[in-house]
């Protein structure tokens, strides 16, 4: 029996990645606007990729503590279905962004230890989805996309009143175990489906979906 797991493939940088993600069965694709990422896209490149995404696959922007001017330009240029906030945006900022852009917001919380879990409850009050990711390692120059996992036992059996995704170091090799350990119904992956930073691999994308869905 297969598992009904929805998959977000994050950090697509080429038009052919869209076809590969759609063929593999992605439910969401992520467009990365964090300048220090190897997956960073200019607005024009992001618009071209977003316009190629088939109906039914949600297009998600990834930003880190973006100001209104940045988000204004982004939402005016790129057709989007959801905003992923991957920085230290406050709960009040989440509320403000939801109201200003009228798009669902997915707030990311980085987890390294049990004490980090309380932030999930805070954001569950205001966000439309939660993304439970690993905290970046010390010295990392980006807050995500570091191919690092956290201890999945920390959230085993935890449920929130809104949809949530598991992220952080997921690969075709470990995603089935991650899903079983956490009960996640949605997962997000960037590095684990790449042949090089920022370069997705169609075979890995297919293998990831097959492993996640069982
Ligand atoms: O992918 C990036 O480069 C990135 C940069 C800044 C913030 C977040 C980023 N990616 C997100 O991080 C998670 C985990 O990535 P990985 O699978 O461990 O590589 C991923 O869900 C992206 O949404």
Automatic annotation (TrEMBL):
* Organism classification: Bacteria, Pseudomonadati, Pseudomonadota, Alphaproteobacteria, Rhodobacterales
Q: Does the keyword Isomerase apply?
A: yes
Keywords associated with the record? Amino-acid biosynthesis, Aromatic amino acid biosynthesis, Isomerase, Tryptophan biosynthesis
Q: Name one GO molecular function term.
A: phosphoribosylanthranilate isomerase activity
> EC number(s) on record?
5.3.1.24
Q: What is this protein called?
A: N-(5'-phosphoribosyl)anthranilate isomerase
Q: Kindly state which reaction or reactions the protein catalyses.
A: N-(5-phospho-beta-D-ribosyl)anthranilate = 1-(2-carboxyphenylamino)-1-deoxy-D-ribulose 5-phosphate
- HAMAP family annotated for this entry? PRAI
Q: Which residues are the signal sequence here?
A: none
Q: What Gene3D superfamilies does the record tag this protein with?
A: Aldolase class I
Q: What range(s) does the N-(5'phosphoribosyl) anthranilate isomerase (PRAI) domain occupy?
A: 8-211
Instruction: Tell me what organism the protein belongs to.
Output: Roseovarius pelagicus
Family per UniProt? Belongs to the TrpF family.
Which pathway, per its entry? Amino-acid biosynthesis; L-tryptophan biosynthesis; L-tryptophan from chorismate: step 3/5
Q: What class of enzyme is it?
A: isomerase
Record has ATP-binding as a keyword: no
């Amino acid at each position: 029996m297969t598992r009904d797991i929805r998959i977000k493939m994050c950090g697509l940088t080429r038009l052919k990645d869209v076809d590969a993600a759609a063929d593999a069965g992605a439910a969401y694709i992520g467009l990365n606007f964090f300048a220090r990422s190897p997956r960073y896209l200019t607005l024009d490149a992001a618009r071209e990729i977003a316009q190629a995404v088939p109906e039914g696959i949600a297009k998600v922007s990834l930003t880190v503590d973006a100001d209104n001017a940045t988000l204004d330009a982004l939402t005016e240029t790129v057709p989007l279905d959801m905003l992923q906030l991957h920085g230290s945006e406050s709960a009040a900022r989440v509320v403000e962004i939801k109201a200003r852009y009228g798009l669902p917001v997915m707030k990311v919380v980085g987890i390294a230890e049990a004490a980090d879990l309380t932030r999930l409850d805070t954001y569950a009050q205001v966000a439309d989805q939660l993304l439970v990711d690993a905290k970046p390692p010390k010295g990392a120059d980006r807050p995500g996309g570091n191919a690092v996992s956290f201890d999945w036992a920390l959230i085993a059996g935890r449920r929130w009143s809104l949809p949530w995704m598991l992220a952080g170091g997921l690969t075709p090799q470990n995603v089935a175990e991650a899903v079983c350990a956490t009960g996640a119904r949605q997962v997000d992956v960037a590095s684990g489906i790449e042949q090089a930073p920022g370069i997705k691999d169609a075979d890995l994308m297919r293998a990831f979906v097959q492993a996640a869905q069982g």
